[in-house]
Design goal:
This protein has about 180 residues and is of the alpha+beta class. The chain has 2 domains: about 25 residues; about 130 residues, Immunoglobulin-like. The protein is about 30% helix and about 30% strand. The chain has 4 helices and 8 strands, in the order αααββαββββββ. Strand 3 and strand 4 form a beta hairpin. It is elongated, with a radius of gyration of 29 Å. This is FixH family protein. Keywords: Membrane, Transmembrane, Transmembrane helix. Pfam families: FixH. It comes from Pistricoccus aurantiacus.
Length: about 180
């Protein structure tokens, strides 16, 4: 019996090595592509000092508790075309005039916080036009999801209302004390 001689082909004519090299090569190409994209589109660190922020959490919670104790809430409307902001502040106001000014100051600060890029954050000043009605102007047309924080525009703001929304929004945005904002 004679056996047939086996034909040995060179490695580069076989499909399996090329398939393995193709998988490895595409992995390297995708890896380099993702590295370049992450460097070019770097979104920065949202918060520089996490430890300091962690220590300040009790002060923030205190503002939320104060707003809840006063029964504060607000309805915010932002016109998508003109950027006009209208806010109605509601809540119980203690008896004295000084306390009334403390709760409903002449100006409120509305912080618009973009969740992923700190460079897109804005703080807008809202002016009181009536007892519980404030107006302001948004800098440009807003899109996507934003967190909102409303505080008195004073150095020692002692209450805070929060909320979140996706712009453009046709519905009024409800701002509540921080621990009640999710829901």
């Amino acid at each position: 019996m004679t056996s047939m001689p086996q034909i040995v082909r060179p490695w580069y004519k076989e499909p399996w090595p090329w398939m393995m090299l193709g998988v490895l090569g595409s992995s390297v190409i995708f890896g380099i592509t993702y590295l370049v994209m992450s460097i070019v589109t770097f979104d920065g660190m949202v918060e520089d000092d996490y430890y300091k922020e962690g220590l300040a959490i009790n002060q923030v919670l205190e503002k939320d508790h104060r707003a809840a104790a006063l029964g504060l809430s607000a309805d915010l409307r932002i016109d998508d075309l003109t950027g006009d902001i209208s806010l109605e502040l509601r809540g119980t106001v203690p008896g004295t005039e000084a306390q009334h000014r403390e709760i409903r100051p002449q100006q409120l600060a509305l912080a618009l916080i973009f969740p992923a890029q700190d460079g897109r954050d804005h703080t807008l000043i809202l002016e009181r036009v009536r007892d519980n009605h404030y107006v302001g102007q948004a800098p440009r047309q807003l899109k996507y999801r934003w967190y909102l924080q409303l505080t008195p525009n004073v150095a020692d703001a002692n209450w805070r209302l929060t909320g979140e929304t996706r712009f453009p929004s046709q519905e009024p945005i409800s701002l509540k004390p921080g621990n009640q904002a999710k829901g």
